[in-house]
Amino acid sequence: MAILVTGGAGFIGSNFVLEWLAQSSESVVVLDKLTYAGNPDNLSSVQNDARFKLVQGDIGDRTLVSDLLTKHGIRAVLNFAAESHVDRSIHAPGEFIQTNVVGTFELLEAVRAYWGALEGDARQAFRFLHVSTDEVYGSLGDNDPAFTEQHRYEPNSPYSASKAASDHLVRAYHHTYGLPVLTTNCSNNYGPFHFPEKLIPLMILNALNGKALPVYGDGRNVRDWLYVTDHCSAIRRVLESGLLGETYNIGGWNEKTNLEVVHTLCDILDDLSPRSDAKSYREQMQFVKDRPGHDRRYAIDASKVERELGWRPAETFDSGIRKTVRWYLDHPQWVQGVVSGAYRDWVKTQYGQ
């Protein structure tokens, strides 16, 4: 028996795989397309582990998925595979529709056929856990209550719309076919192996390289921040004990404006890796034109997963963000391997630098 982790070489998926292998004896098969954000180096520490197998491939390849399910006796599928960067979805929405909508459909079809052929305890125990985002709920006002699982879907970007569509497909496959599904909607993750186009790693690396720290608009957009290993522990808990067909919102109880996040990063870097001129990294901050349709505030109410499954995050924002900065300072080889010419071209396109 084994689990199948799609998108397992990406940021959250790779952290989940590493945490799983550290805490479980069960084997893991990773299926990842290994595009720009899927990085085998994230999993280099377990590449020789007999319980681990990495397969390059697309969740939209129904034949490949079916073969993996059968060959490895998969008892649970955890779907992390997704195009996930809002800015990229604005410039190239087609890739998001193909992966997040069509890919999820093809994956569900392969899983439905496999599960349908299972018998007895294996059929009863099988699970399909779909990892999604709080962005499907849209934007909140400054004083609005945080998103609960009952909040109406109001996606505002091609990315969030494509994830909303995938969520609806997963729900439909449960209600129509009885597929034993679970869905999680998380807030903004941060931590090790985060691809440096997202806010926190981008600011860390730009600061260290003497580049401008681009902040959209007035910098007062609010996000709830969740340390990635806390997210992984929540997913394990939902997989273990979540009620079939249910959705669980996973958040860190850490609402911060983008300005607060960047200021905190600068202050930590001032302490751990000071500039040679002894000035603060805050001097590198630069406000840039806001992106189209930029949601003002996200906030997750994680009361349900706490109440029903007994999960709470272990990290505060202060503890998690310091660990994150320390990780990037301690892993320059990983950073160098990620910061490719294609990545630099993307930053130039996005921020005009």
- What's the end-to-end separation, in Å? 49 Å
The proportion of strand residues reads: 15-25%
Q: Could you name the CATH class of the domain at 2-193 and 225-253 and 295-316?
A: Alpha Beta
Cα radius of gyration in angstroms? 20 Å
Q: Please, what is the average pLDDT? A: 95
Oligomeric state as shown: single chain
Q: What is the number of helices?
A: 13
Strand order of the largest sheet: 3-2-1-4-5-6-10
The CATH topology label of the domain at 2-193 and 225-253 and 295-316 is Rossmann fold
Share of residues in helices: 40-55%
Q: What is the overall silhouette?
A: globular
Instruction: Give me the count of strands.
Output: 12
- By CATH, the superfamily of the domain at 2-193 and 225-253 and 295-316 comes out as NAD(P)-binding Rossmann-like Domain
Structural class: alpha/beta
Order of helices and strands: EHEEHEHHHEHEEHEEHEEHEHHHH
The second-level CATH architecture of the domain at 2-193 and 225-253 and 295-316 is 3-Layer(aba) Sandwich
Give the low-pLDDT segments.
none
